[in-house]
Amino acid sequence: MHAISAEAISKIREVSAIDFANIAWACASYGLQVEPLSDAISSEVRRNVHQFGSQELSSWLWAFSKLSVENAELLRAICHDAISKVHEFTAQDLSNLLWSLSRQANALDEPLMHALAAEAKKKINNFSGQNLATIAGAFAKLNCSDQPLLDAISAAARCNLWQFAAPDLANMVWSMAQIGIHDDQLMTAIAEQARRLLSAFNTRDLTSLASAFATFAYHDRDLMRAMSTAVIKNIHELSAQDVSKMSWAVAKMMYVDETLLGVLSEESVSCIGEFQAVNLANIVWSCAKLTNKNEGLIDSLCGASMEIVEQFNAQNLANTVWAIATLNFTVTEKMEAFIECSINKISEFGPQGLSNTAWAFAKMD
Question: How much is the CA Rg of the chain, to the nearest whole Å?
Fold first, then answer.
């Protein structure tokens, strides 16, 4: 891989942006340093940005985003040039550019976003299902709302749901929740499409869709029952992230299935060392919401939380302390140690966190 990377850099003017991005992704997957690649891309783009067409602009930014390297100067140069060429962008170019922008920190360039939104609306009938989900997701991640475009996306999605694969459905629902698309007709259609595709879903698709529906607060008991059955059948295929997402989703929707709760609890214990702080907090919170009084699980979760307590933000801390108090356990040493760490970070809590934590301390006193 080192040899391939070095050769690509030496021939950068001959290598397309897509090929360069694929090489970059492979190098990153092998854990190799990406700085030489990112430096080469940055230098090439800055030198030729004004000569690039719309496809080249979107492809080079896509390549840079694949490297997960931020370069404010390069981003400004591409954004500035993209505005003047926005009418040249195809639906796929617009989708690629918006996806790339959504993965760059501080990428919200309002003039460019307005221009891209207007152009996307004009070409809305040219977008595939995946493209529609991608642009909705990009606007959601950039916290940018353009109501005419959102209305157009919603209408186009209703007409083209047959094109949506399982990940696109989950991405679309999550995006709708984040940017405020309230379309009951579309949500019902997505649920129906999900039921038709359910046998083709993998475990990540299932947990992502369940989490997306929960985020949107959309309840379809029949679909949830079918997804739960599929998750139970394939529980050992779930990653730690999937276990956390599914636990949070069923609690958010107050969906009580004792068999599902049991297998999720068992799987949580088996992958306890793989959870991040937000995963641990979400699972403890879900246990409290559904009154899942599995003291061994909660004790294990608190023990794991202590090992990475510095990664917990104020909300994670407050939610976890609230959950311990709600479950009304006799406080174990691990639980007590976690609560003490929460007290040390109390200055970071917001009003809701302070209120929940005060209630929890009073409850446990």
Answer: 23
Nearest to 310 by CA among 356, 275, 344, 273: 344
Distance of CA 212 to the CA centre of its chain: 10
Q: How many CB atoms lie within 10 A of CB 29?
A: 9
CA-based nearest residue to 206, from 237, 160, 175: 237
When the pLDDT of each residue in the chain is averaged and rounded to a whole number, the result is 82
Q: By C-alpha distance, which of 123, 146, 125, 200 is closest to 169?
A: 200
Residue in the block written with tokens 């985020």 = 215
Please report where in the chains the tokens 């940017």 appear, as a residue: 179
| Residue located via tokens 């007590």 | 336
User: Are 261 and 229 spatial neighbours (Cβ–Cβ below 8 Å)?
Assistant: no
Contacts of 134 by beta carbon, 8 Å cutoff, 6+ apart = 95, 98, 99, 171
Alpha-carbon gap, residue 130 to 133, rounded angstroms: 5
Supply the DSSP string of 104-144, one letter for each residue: STT---HHHHHHHHHHHHHTGGG--HHHHHHHHHHHHHTT-
Mean pLDDT of 288-300: 86
pTM here is: 0.76
- The residue written with tokens 């990428």 in the block is 107
Burial 312-338 (b: 16+ CB within 10 A, else e): bebbbbbbbbbbbbbbebeeeebbeeb
The tens digit of pLDDT for each residue in 155-198 reads: 999 998 888 888 888 888 888 888 777 788 888 999 999 998 88
